[in-house]
Amino acid sequence: MPFHYTIEMLVNELKAKSILQNEEIINLAEKNETKIEYQNGNLILTCAENQDLDEELVKKILSTISGSVTAKAYLIDGKSKIEIFNGKLDPKNPFGNSQDDI
Questions:
Q1: Torsion-angle region of residue 15: left (phi > 0), alpha (psi -120 to 50) or beta?
Q2: Within a domain: residue 100?
Q3: pLDDT in tens, 42-65
Q4: Which helix (H) or strand (E) holds 20?
Q5: Residue 101, domain member (yes or no)
Q6: What percentage of the chain reaches a pLDDT higher than 90?
Q7: pTM here?
Q8: Considering Cα of 46, then 49, then 54, then 57, what sign does the dihedral take?
């Protein structure tokens, strides 16, 4: 059954514009077939079908933001949306605990 991952990062519009205009981020997203958009205060990354989240892309986004960010990640399989992460993403360890959480 096909699935995809989506991650939503809470960022302001200024930071989102900086990310959406960053050539390195655009190239990484295209290489990994990841769609990036900004809606309702969230930067949303939608991965290609049956592809994992790209840690290098997430690290680059977090380094552009210059800090940790509150985020949620979901696994979507067509019938359900399962939350797999809810917390702060740390630029040094995106899918671990943020230093702010420790």
A1: alpha
A2: no
A3: 999 999 999 988 889 999 999 998
A4: helix 13-20
A5: no
A6: 72
A7: 0.85
A8: negative
Measured between alpha carbons, how far is 65 from 50 in angstroms, rounded to an integer?
27
Cα 52 from Cα 85, distance rounded (Å): 14
Measure the CA–CA gap between 44 and 70, rounded to whole angstroms: 12
**Tokens describing residue 92:** 């040094």
If one counts every other C-beta atom within 10 angstroms of the C-beta of residue 15, the result is 18
Distance CA 82, CA 97 (A): 20
Is 53 in contact with 64 (CB distance < 8 Å)? no
CATH number at residue 73: 3.30.70
Joined together, the tokens standing for residue 15 give 């930071």
18 burial via Cβ count (<10 Å: 0-12, 13-18, 19+): middle
Tens-place pLDDT, residues 11-38: 999 999 999 999 999 999 999 999 999 9
User: Domain limits at 59?
Assistant: 4-95
